[in-house]
Amino acid sequence: MRVNGVQFDSGVVGGELPVESRLEKLQLSFDTPLWPLAAPLFFLIRVDFFQFVSLNTCRGSISHFFIFLFAMTRGYTLLEILVAVTLMMLIMLGLTQLFSSVGTQINNTQATLQLAGELRSAKTRLESDLKLVTADLTKAPPMKTGVNQGYFCIIEGMGAAHTNDWLRNQGFVAGKDIAFTSDSNESYDNTVGDMDDILMFTAHAPEGQPFRGLVGGQVRESNMAEIIWFCRGNTLYRRTLLIVPGSESLDTDPNGFYQRNDVSVRFENGRVIANSLEDLALRQNRFGHAVSAGATLQKFREAFPFNIHKNSAVYYLRMPTIQETSLSTWDVSESFDENLRTCLGLGPSLGYTGGITTGNSETLPDGTGPFIDFWEDPLPWAGFPVTGERYAEDAILNNVISFDIQVWDDDAKRYVNLGEARDGFYDDGMSAGPFGGQGNYPLRKQNAYTDELSWIALPCVYDTWSEEYEREGYMWPDQDGVLTETQGRNQRDDNRNGVIDDIDEWTTPPPYSVPLRGVKISIRAFDPLSKNIREMTIIHNFVGK
Ligand SMILES: [Ca+2]
Ligand SMILES: [Ca+2]
Ligand SMILES: [Ca+2]
Ligand SMILES: [Ca+2]
Predict the structure, then answer these.
(1) Ligand 3 centre and the CA of 496: distance in Å?
(2) CA R_g for the chain
(3) Shortest-distance ligand to the CA of residue 196
(4) How far is the CA of 150 from the centre of ligand 4 (A)?
(5) How far is residue 523's CA from residue 396's CA, in Å, rounded to a whole number?
(6) Helix 39-59 with 63-73: angle, nearest 10 deg
(7) Contact, 202 vs 224, CB < 8 A?
(8) How far apart are the first and last CA of the chain?
(9) Are strands 235-242 and 395-397 parallel, antiparallel or unpaired?
């Protein structure tokens, strides 16, 4: 399918994708003038032809033909030569333009093919990862304790081809609040799709193809890994952390840990501990979710449900890359935003509300923002100062302008962004299933959830969760912030609806307590030379797995 010079894989993008002026139409420039090729020849022939005709006309004798031949052998005048040389130069100019144009087209075609190849390899990698998911997604969250299945989590960042109710109320407009062109127009860039989704899960390697990574500075293999897919700027990353529980060779120094290790770890009781699949069922143990080492039980409860997006800057920065975490000062015992604050020297408050700096003004002419020009910025932090020893090992694809994760809504019979529905309906009028709503994020019922709404709406999250948070006898803050004993697993019908321990009784319910049937993930990338855009889509069904 071709839309204004933009090539999409068929059936991936609906008929009309709005395309901006930055996507100039590709044209084969065969309108280069060719007439100079013939002109000098014509000029020389014409001069002598008229000499011949005029001689014959005047003298009327065949013998004058020989006079003409004689005339032909005479030298040209300076003027004739000058004109001929000028015309020859025009020919050369025309030819140069022609070959240059053809050369450009060949380069563009090569670049487009290369883009398609790179996109296909990213797609293949993601497809094979999805086949390796350890969690049983046919069961509704929360995951039972002790099943040793790891986790699966989709974080639907608030930017999308839609906005949820909360964002609409805040005046957010689609994904445009973060994508714009940094040219003189400073216009919204609608070539950019949903860029802020994160996919993270545990995976089991296929037979004979173990995951590889550093353990104590040495390359090691493991059959299990924690895998995280996310975009930063216009680069798509895939972070892989080996699951090696009880690893004897594990490095115990929390500083610069990721310089020497690609291991899924948590910091607990003053120690770096390698996670097992069971440990990773709990969000606070996962990559990027670290709770501060000095956290008291109260702080720990406040941190629940351990979102990575507690800070606006971190929201835009998604997840830590190898480049950042391989700093010698990066501390595994601290959270992502605390590390950034330390490493960037930003003081106790991150003081970074703009989210993204592109070197241009931080707001659009209409006062909205923050923004980023995804066609220009490899990282959304101008002069990015956090550079560790390792670099780009986790980068999968450059020039990405959409990494959109959607989930199957069995009511609407289509893939949707989590939280996409408005008042129970999608924009196309279809009534929404559970995934259309925001789930228990932001659940007004719990202080633990609403605490984090001070700056911005939380992204909608699908998570296999764990019933561990609701363990009988555990104390969590209720809707008024008062610590109360959980009632979700106490074998009593506390809300008297005839069902014992239904999810409405839970103090710590999962965001969505429904099975995940399938996901659709679209990756869109551009080629800066040809300005071509390509998009590839992965559809993965978890039912019958
Ligand atoms: Ca999103
Ligand atoms: Ca999405
Ligand atoms: Ca009940
Ligand atoms: Ca109960």
Answers:
(1) 5
(2) 32
(3) 1
(4) 26
(5) 11
(6) 150
(7) yes
(8) 33
(9) antiparallel
- The amino acid present at 425, given as its one-letter code, is F
Who contacts 410 (Cβ-Cβ below 8 Å, separation ≥6)? 433, 517
Distance CA 236, CA 399 (A): 8
What's the CA angle centered on 205, arms 253 and 287, to 5 degrees? 35
Q: What is the pLDDT of residue 209?
A: 95
**pLDDT at residue 275 in the model:** 96
Name the residue ranges covered by the structural domains of the chain: 2-75, 107-465+510-541
Distance from the CA of 498 to the center of ligand 4, in angstroms? 11
Ligand 4 centroid from CA 496, angstroms? 9
- 10-residue mean pLDDT profile of the chain (545 residues): values are 35 33 36 48 51 50 60 78 95 93 87 92 97 97 96 84 52 57 72 89 96 94 97 91 84 89 91 94 90 73 73 65 89 81 59 38 47 72 64 93 95 91 87 88 45 52 93 77 85 95 88 95 93 94 77
pLDDT computed for residue 371 by the predictor: 63
Say what the pLDDT of residue 145 is: 95
CA distance 28 to 22: 18
Residue 266: what are its φ and ψ, rounded to 5°?
Answer: -135, 165
Q: 161 C-alpha vs ligand 2 centroid, how far in Å?
A: 8
Which pLDDT does position 147 carry in this prediction? 97
CA of 326 to the centre of ligand 3 (A): 48
Q: How close is the Cα of 500 to the center of ligand 3, in Å?
A: 5
Which ligand gives the minimal distance to the CA of 499?
Answer: 3
**pLDDT for the residue numbered 41:** 53
Q: Which amino acid does the sequence have at 225? A: A
Quote the ligand 3 centre to 303 CA distance (angstroms). 27
Neighbours of ion ligand 3 (CB under 5 A): 493, 495, 497, 499, 502
**Cα gap 457→471, rounded to integer Å:** 28
Question: Would you call 5 exposed, middle or buried from its count of C-beta atoms within 10 A (0-12, 13-18, 19+)?
Answer: middle
SS (H, E, C) 312-365: HHHHHHCCCCHHHHCCCCCECCCCHHHHHHHHHCCCCCCCCCCCCECCCCCCCC
In this predicted structure, what is the pLDDT of residue 359?
38
Which DSSP string do the residues of 115-142 spell out, in sequence order?
A: HHHHHHHHHHHHHHHHTTB-S-TTSPSS
Cα of 507 from ligand 3 centre, angstroms: 13
Place of tokens 């409405």: 504
55 burial type by CB count under 10 A (0-12 exposed, 13-18 middle, 19+ buried): middle
* CA 435 to ligand 1 centroid distance, Å: 14
